[in-house]
Amino acid sequence: MDVSKITRILAVVFLVCGTVVSAAAQTSVRIGGVMTLEGPFTVLGQEAVRAMEMAFEEVNYSVAGKRIEWVKESSDGRPDVAVGKARKLIEQDKVDILIGPMSGGEGLAIKEYAKSVPGKTILNGFSAAQETTLVNPAPNFFRFGTDGAQWQAGLGSYVYDVKGYRTAAVVAGDYSFGYTQVLGFMTEFCAKGGKVKEKIWVPMGTKDFSSAIARIPDKVDAVYVMFGGADSVNFLTQYYQAGGKIPIIGGSNVTEQTVLSTKGPFQRHMIGIPSAHMVADGIEEPAYLEYVAKYKKRFPDGLAAPSAPFYGYYVATKAALKALAQVGGDLSGNQVKFREALAKLKLDTPTGPVTLDENRQAIANIFVTEVAQRPDGTLYTKVVKVMRNVNQTLGQPRDAFVARGVPSRDNPSCP
């Protein structure tokens, strides 16, 4: 036999044997996390770290006999930075699974990046722009948390029917998540007959909200406000300092714990603000109370209750761990078995069951709330209504819902 042919055969044999040995010797699963530890969403990112840490500790950093190796990277809310960190984790740090990101624009960018790494799996952390999974989804991108429009289910009807609001102005973040939240609120509010008189869009990271506050029309029943993290605190502080009297309707992140736990004079004005979200501090179910107790014990320096970002990253991490356990930690063959397990997963979470639709997007409960005060003075979101099993099209036929177009500054508008 020709020597060169023998050499080629031996090379193939060694390659195959090496691959088998390498797969057999794989004793760990590397999981990456992208969270915002810089910029206006820093406090949200800190909660994301706590969430993944608690989920890993619950399984003693082990799944299906394999050790979990956790690698973290910090973003600052900007899509380009988030993609750069995701690329580093996957291409340099060689993580098998990525969990993140935090904000809407980051999610859209990482969804597109996911299409270039089909052998890896990405589970969304907390980003909630609607089109991330609704339009041209990536087959290896999973979102076990509901999106920002789903988070508003029930709110438009509640403020129209119960609060009696007929007109509103909108002041919101000028990016994909802001557009998504406003669409979710307006879909119901306008369908009931409500009118949105003006939309005021404000860049993320704004420090001075005086010009936006000055543009709020005098003759509206309420102001729908949608910001997150430090932006929420800054807007609320300046709104009430300026003598704002018009009642506020809170976007989801305006009334969650990263804001309610922040000390400031604005807090005394927040009692009674209606909002809606995929979580609520006032849930009384045993599973939720156990979850809160576990958070407080593990993080005595944390917030008064686990925040929505904590829940998002916690549930995503739990989903990854459960699917890994189901497939015995097998991530071979471009992780096909793992993704099949994720797609079929029914996850029992602290807020109720979560399943995925055909676009790998969560169907779950949404809680309409009002801010209330506990005897110890802390603020929390009291549940006034539960919207069960809310899907991404808000109960509408998918084709008709998609045909409305993606959320934007101008979409939707009250007819």
Write a structural description.
This protein is an alpha/beta fold and 415 residues long. The chain folds into 2 domains: 22-147 and 285-350, Response regulator (Rossmann fold, 3-Layer(aba) Sandwich), CATH 3.40.50; 150-283 and 366-403, Response regulator (Rossmann fold, 3-Layer(aba) Sandwich), CATH 3.40.50. Helices cover 40% and strands 21% of the residues. The protein is built from 14 helices and 15 strands. It has helices at 3-25, 42-58, 79-92, 104-114, 131-134, 155-161, 176-191, 210-214, 230-241, 257-260, 286-298, 308-326, 332-344, 398-403, and strands spanning 28-36, 62-63, 66-75, 97-99, 121-123, 141-142, 167-173, 195-202, 222-226, 248-250, 274-277, 347-349, 352-356, 362-373, 379-390. The strands form 3 sheets. It has a 6-stranded mixed beta sheet, with helices on both faces. The termini are far apart.
Supply database-style keywords.
globular, 415 residues, 40% helix, 2 domains, Rossmann fold, single chain, five-stranded antiparallel β-sheet, six-stranded mixed β-sheet
